[in-house]
Amino acid sequence: MRQPARDILSHSFGAALLAGIAVLACSPSKTKQPVETTKESGKSVSPSGVSADRRGTTLIRVVNALPDKKHIDIAADTRVLFSNVGYQDVTDFQELRDNVTRFTVRRNGRDSVLAENREVVGDGARYTLVALPEAKGGILLRVLRDELVTDPAKTKLRVINAAAGMDNVDVLMKGEKDPLFSNVDSGIEAGYKEVTPATTTLVFKAQSGRPLEVENVKLEPGRAYTIVLTGALGHKVDAVRFDDRLVRSGTQVSMRP
Question: Is pLDDT at 6 greater than 60 in this prediction?
């Protein structure tokens, strides 16, 4: 007898869920320190992974990389987590209790869903949700797991290409021959890479069009940097920057609610 399609789908999702939970259970211990995030709008501090894990929560933030420049809401199942997120905004972290969640993108104040992503997330872990344009004119919602630098002498960098139509992007430090990242297509996260601390100019070279140069990029030890390319090929392309670092013992911080 042929198994009903809905049963097959249910079985497939259940298997994926169990696999996701197994991976999360085997992941490294969460850091004990709070995390300070620096972005264009200022600094904020979020709870440690250990404290969030004890409360059974996941830490979530959002980047709006939709070049139509309209504000969006992000909901987790039926609850709006982030409201009125503007173009190129990077929100503060919020805590989410559910481990299996249907994230949705909506226009600010509206109910219709523009994009969705059903994900398994882990207690105490950190995730960045990126709303970005799809090649065929639609909208994607990527759910990306964040990393931190636990060795204060090291630096990490990741690049997220959210610029529509800007494919095969190489990322280089100006003056260097070998790229840090190669062939990063639109909609792709290049992952984290350890880099040498420096103040440098980063060059983003696509298959076509003029390279984008971002000057005076400070890559300091102990920080994990994220650069999100926004805009579209043939139009203005920008680089949204933010970084995360562990708050060391003895540092006075003000925790945002």
Answer: no
